[in-house]
Each structure stands twice: as structure tokens, then as C-alpha cells.
Specification:
Layout lengths: L5 H18 L4 H18 L19 H6 L21 H10 L2 H5 L14 E4 L2 E4 L16 H10 L14 H4 L4 H11 L13 E2 L9 H8 L13 H13 L3 H4 L35 H10 L10 H9 L6 H13 L8
Antiparallel strand pairs: 1-2, 2-3
Helix pairs in contact: 4-8, 6-8, 10-14, 12-14
The structure holds heme C (HEC) (2 copies).
One heme C binds next to helix 5 and helix 6.
Length: about 350
Amino acid sequence: MSWNKALIAFSTVAAAGLTLAVATGSSYGQNAGQNAAKSGSAKAAVGQASKSAPAPSPSQPASGTAASAGAPPGAAAGTTPTAQADTRPADVRHGEYLVKAAGCVGCHTVEGKGVAPFSGGRALKTDFGTFYGPNITPDKTAGIGAWTEDDFKRALREGVGRDGTHLYPAFPYPSFTKIADADVHDLWAYLQTVPASAQANKPHELKFPFSWRFLLVFWKWLFFTPGPDAAMASASAEVSRGAYLVNALAHCGECHTERNFFGAVKKDRQLAGTPGKDGAPNITPAKLKWSDGELKDFFSSGMTPDNDQVNDTMGEVITNTTSQLTAQDTAALIAYLKQVPAIESKK
Ligand code: HEC
Ligand code: HEC
């Protein structure tokens, strides 16, 4: 993952946070708590309440959104109304498919044989330090067995943990926030069926100041818009399915889109690659000229048209995600990639 330069910039935010803490004369601990608790209303106060009202999801046109749109400022900001449990019958097998399409297993399972899937501990190295994917099996203490479906939905949709802590975007909720309600329901149903593991979570090893979780409040303020994406509504069914796969579930842009100083993806550089020798290539039509058949082979086997095998990073995406997609979804993914705006690579 290329989070270059974010260090410097994030330090600036850290300094701002520090100033704030000093100015209000409160200790870090209190301040963090207050910030977490207030983030919803603070957002409304700066006049961005409408930003956090989720766009209607295709599966749930009217219900839910009305509640947040009509709520007093602050009350519902940043939260999807979750008072009612989702009672629709869940499709566990579809949930299993979605878990693959979203690559959940990779970040939440250490490599090796005999490891319980989703039991956590996988090291994810970034410029911020090393994150460890937590245990998301149904174990009541080590995993998420004590969570409700609403807690789970809030984690994916808003990047908030069960106790209200803000989650790091190393967990790609800026993409997962676009997952439709019905799919969140199925994902949850499937995760309930995996064997519970009592493996304890490993604390992240982050460089200062990233270890200050409360700074995520500022980050989210600046860069995070929760809720499904209605942008592809006018595209063909195939292309919009492809958009959903690429941008929500398979979160391709989390690696293939350059990030700004603050580690947030640059909206005007979507899928145009990341700089540096470990960077991910430009996969817009400006650079990616492979035929549909070549792309299909690549996404199922990892073999490029020149008979090169991809590196481990993309290799894992192919093993866990793209090779698991149905033929129809692979075709949709390719159809979408073929029509995204062509963006020239940076020199
Ligand atoms: C790119 C790596 C990555 C992928 C892919 C990923 N996660 Fe995570 N996930 C993380 C990290 C890292 C955290 C910890 C974030 C933190 O501590 O702030 C996390 C946290 C979580 C949490 C909160 C757990 C807790 O104890 O607070 C849940 C729930 C979760 N992920 C579920 C999922 C599901 C479901 C998927 C697939 C749809 C998924 N994750 C895919 C990296 C990932
Ligand atoms: C975890 C980071 C990551 C994710 C997520 C990811 N990629 Fe990649 N991808 C890479 C890297 C790194 C390479 C370069 C691999 C190499 O050169 O060996 C790559 C290579 C590729 C290539 C080959 C391009 C070329 O010109 O060689 C394509 C096509 C591609 N990715 C498409 C996708 C699509 C579509 C998705 C979403 C389904 C995706 N990637 C998700 C990191 C990622």
C-alpha cells in the first residue's frame, strides 16, 4: 500500500490535535473520548450534516433515509438509522461469495496451514506502521461474537468499532461503506457460521502520532463520506455491477489509486496507479490495453499476456478474490474497467 508522505502531513494534523488538547486543557484520554462522542454533532455544526445522509441504496429505496434527512442536526449525522434489526432472510451462501469478493480473509488471517480463517493477527505493513487485522470470528471475547448486526453494519458503513472507537482506514471502509444493505446482511450471516477462534488480537504497532486513534476524527471529517454510491445509476446493469465490484466490494482503488498527503485516495486519480517501485499500476484505459480475454485470464490465473506471473500483492487479490468471481461478475468487472475515464500515468 502506498501511503507516501502521509506521515508528514498527518503530523500536521497531530500538531493541530495537540494544540487543541493543550488549548482545552484536557488530557489526551478525555479529549479522545470527547472527540469520539462528539464527532456526529461536530459535523453538523460545520454544516456538513447533509454529507452524511446516506444515498438511498438500490435494495432499500425509501426506508431509513427519510429518518436521517429529517432528524435534527447532529442527532443522526454520521449514523445510519439502525434501530430496527434487519429481518429479511439472509443468504449465507451469497454472504460467503461476498466475503470472497471483498477479500476479507486476506487481512484477517495469518498466512500458513491449519490457521483458523478470520482469526486475525495478519500483519499489514504501511508507512504508518504495522496494523494487525483483528479476529472477526464469532468468539464472544476474542472475536466479534458479542457484536450485533447493527454494530457490524456500523463498522463497514462508518468505520466505527463496537465501543464507538474510530477505525483506521487500513480497514477499507471508505470502499465498504458503499456495500448495499442487503449484502451487509448476508456478509454478517455468513460470518456467524465460521468457526469461533479464541486467538487474542494483537495491538497495532504504529508510529507516533498515528497511534493516536482520536486523530481519525479529523481524518474522517475531511475525507470520508459514508453511504452507498448512487453515481453509477445511469450506466448499464453490467457496468454498474462492475462499478460495485471494483469500488465497493473488491476495493481495487485502495491500492490502484494514489493517495494525498493525508493517506486519502485522490478522487481525480481513480485507478491511475500509485508511484514508487512497489506501486500498483495504472489500470485505466490510458495504460491497460489488454483484451477482454487477456484480462479474463489474468483475473483467473494471475498470468499476464507476456506470461509473467504477478507479485504477491496482486497475487493474493487474484487467489482470494478475482479468481473466485462468477463468469458474469468477471465480465462485469472487465466491462467497468474498459469504460472508466482514461487517466495518464504520472511521469
Ligand atoms: C486491507 C485489509 C482489510 C480487509 C480487506 C478487510 N479488513 Fe477488516 N479490518 C482490517 C484492519 C487493519 C482492522 C482494524 C482497524 C482498527 O483497529 O482500527 C479491521 C477491522 C475490522 C472490524 C472491526 C473489528 C474490531 O474488533 O473492532 C470488522 C468487523 C472487520 N474488519 C470486518 C471485515 C470484513 C467483513 C471484511 C470484508 C468485507 C474486512 N474486514 C476486510 C483490515 C481489513
Ligand atoms: C492489495 C493491493 C491491491 C489490490 C486490492 C488490487 N490490486 Fe491490482 N495490482 C496490485 C499490484 C501491486 C500490482 C502489480 C503487480 C505486479 O506488477 O506484479 C497489480 C496489478 C494489477 C493488474 C495488472 C496491470 C498491469 O499493467 O500489469 C491489473 C489488471 C489489476 N491489478 C487489477 C486489479 C483489480 C481489477 C483489482 C480489484 C479487483 C485490483 N487490481 C486490486 C495491487 C492491488
